[in-house]
Amino acid sequence: QVQLVESGGGLVQAGGSLRLSCAASGLSFSRYGMGWFRQAPGKEREFVGGISRSGDSTYYADSVKGRFTISRDNAKKTGYLQMNSLKPEDSAVYYCAASTGSGNYYYRSVYDYWGQGTQVTVSS
């Protein structure tokens, strides 16, 4: 019933930009906080950022602060991750997730639903 679908990934040169989208269906979108995670080969899935239900609060990993921006459009039931000044170390599969929790966006365990991911590859 609940589905999250990421899109917008691809191949980009270092210094370039991409915007990822996370389209939600089967849930009351505005009742869920949203998170973004990424996973590179051989590494654990790591927190990228989160956004509150209303979009009033955002949270970022130190590694992406100042470069990535999280937003959401509740009317469209879509979350976004704008990625600027991309680096090769940003290469990973990016996942969006939804949570009814009260605000700890860092931990994977607080999320109820996950998308299948979209590949981002940043070349040198």
List keywords for this structure.
124 residues, mainly beta, 7-stranded mixed beta sheet, 4-stranded antiparallel beta sheet, 49% strand
Secondary structure layout plus pairing:
Layout: E1 3-7, E2 10-13, E3 18-25, E4 33-39, E5 46-51, E6 58-60, E7 68-73, E8 78-83, E9 92-99, E10 113-114, E11 118-123
Parallel strand pairs: 2-11
Antiparallel strand pairs: 1-3, 3-8, 4-5, 4-9, 5-6, 7-8, 9-10, 9-11
Q: Mind explaining what this structure looks like?
A:
The protein has strands at 3-7, 10-13, 18-25, 33-39, 46-51, 58-60, 68-73, 78-83, 92-99, 113-114, 118-123. With 124 residues, the chain is an all-beta fold. The strands form two sheets. Strands 2, 4, 5, 6, 9, 10 and 11 form a seven-stranded mixed beta sheet that branches. The relative contact order is 0.32.
Number of helices, counting only DSSP H or I runs of 4 residues or more = 0
Radius of gyration, whole Å: 13 Å
- According to DSSP, the number of beta strands is 11
Give the helix/strand class. mainly beta
Major sheet summary line: 7 strands, mixed
Kindly estimate the percentage of residues that lie in beta strands according to DSSP.
over 45%
* Mean residue pLDDT: 96
**How far apart, in Å, are the first and last alpha carbons?**
40 Å
Uncertain residue segments: none
Percentage of residues in helical conformation? under 10%
Give the helices and strands as they follow along the chain. EEEEEEEEEEE
The global form is globular
